[in-house]
Amino acid sequence: MAITDKIYVKNHRQLASQLDTSFPKSAFSGATLDILFTGDGIAKLDEASRDRVLEFAEDFLDCDCQSHPHCGCPQRKFVAYLLELRAEGLGPDAIVDVMGDDYMLYAYPGDVLSFLDDGVRTMEAAERLAAVDGREEMEDELREKRRELT
Ligand SMILES: [Zn+2]
Description:
Elements: E1 8-9, H1 12-19, H2 30-37, H3 47-60, H4 73-87, H5 92-103, E2 105-106, H6 109-132, H7 136-149
Antiparallel strand pairs: 1-2
The chain binds zinc ion.
The site of zinc ion has 5 residues, from loops.
């Protein structure tokens, strides 16, 4: 499962009752993107929740793809957001705190940790491949990126 399948909406039950409809707890499930983040119901949310929901939509659902918001861009952008937080030096617990403050989302720190570990391993593998192929510039660039994450 991708990390974006393990990102959840905080106060899920409360929001569902404000919207007067149910949607999955998982933030990136198709129905949640439709109902909570791009639906007409946003106006029914209390102000604090509405601000976070709009913030999320602005930051991750701002593409013009035909299949929006089911095009994969939201997930890609969110992964980039996580990596950015890591590059700023945040650990899994702090990353979970920040996504809660920013977007009213939560995840289990253990899931964030394994996501970051996987990312580092993928980069190590790519680095080794670049080294084997003699692509030094690529190898250096990957090593640099990986350092940002660890
Ligand atoms: Zn898109």
